[in-house]
Automatic annotation (TrEMBL):
<keyword id="KW-0328">Glycosyltransferase</keyword>
<protein>
    <submittedName>
        <fullName>Bifunctional pyr operon transcriptional regulator/uracil phosphoribosyltransferase PyrR</fullName>
        <ecNumber>2.4.2.9</ecNumber>
    </submittedName>
</protein>
<dbReference type="Pfam" id="PF00156">
    <property type="entry name" value="Pribosyltran"/>
</dbReference>
<dbReference type="InterPro" id="IPR029057">
    <property type="entry name" value="PRTase-like"/>
</dbReference>
<dbReference type="GO" id="GO:0004845">
    <property type="term" value="F:uracil phosphoribosyltransferase activity"/>
</dbReference>
<dbReference type="InterPro" id="IPR050137">
    <property type="entry name" value="PyrR_bifunctional"/>
</dbReference>
<dbReference type="InterPro" id="IPR000836">
    <property type="entry name" value="PRTase_dom"/>
</dbReference>
<keyword id="KW-0808">Transferase</keyword>
<feature type="domain" description="Phosphoribosyltransferase">
    <location>
        <begin position="7"/>
        <end position="164"/>
    </location>
</feature>
Length: 182
């Protein structure tokens, strides 16, 4: 299997710091802003951003985990049942500016489902999207990130793999790999 490195650990760290500074610039004091990590892979990125934001700003940043499994348009079309993840939101999003955080934006289906799931916690004033990797040529829905780490041109025969040291990988990295041909 061919594997091409697109972001190494140092580059990812630079992107995380850039995200934090952009958020601080755009969301004064986080008084009316919350961050939601999309389960399962967006929460790792969210946790890293919140940790860095709190270090830089000295403020507690409201953050939670959002699972959109049962809001997906392909939920009943699978050969096997999907397993839900934990939604952990201990605040209302009513009237708040919400930043949805995910690792990779692919077709836009997960983000669309997340917006449906988020409404159960109130109607936000505004919703923004932050992703580490934007696969810009593969969208099914007209969804674009407000914040992105890197944009890559990929085709349907490729995967974007995000590896995190916190999950047992040697270091943080983003790879593009080819799907195995059958």
């Amino acid at each position: 299997m061919q594997k091409r490195l697109v972001l190494n650990q140092q580059q990812i760290q630079i992107i995380l710091k850039r995200f934090c500074h952009q958020l601080i610039e755009n969301h004064d004091n986080f008084d009316n802003t919350v961050l939601l990590g999309l389960q399962p892979r967006g929460i790792i990125l969210l946790d890293r951003i919140v940790e860095e934001l709190e270090k830089i700003s000295g403020k507690k940043v409201p953050a939670g985990y959002l699972d959109a499994t049962f809001h997906r348009d392909d939920f009943r079309r699978r050969d096997f049942p999907l397993k839900a993840n934990e939604t952990k939101i201990d605040f209302l999003v009513e009237g708040k500016k919400v930043i949805l955080v995910d690792d990779v934006l692919y077709k836009g289906r997960s983000v669309r489902a997340a917006m449906d799931a988020m409404i159960a916690f109130g109607r936000p004033q505004k919703v923004e999207l932050m992703v580490l990797v934007d696969r810009k040529l593969t969208r099914d829905y007209p969804i674009m990130p407000d914040y992105f780490g890197i944009r890559v041109n990929t085709i349907d025969t490729q995967y974007v793999v995000v590896e995190w040291a916190s999950q047992g990988q040697p270091e943080d990295a983003v790879w593009i790999t080819e799907k195995e041909q059958k």
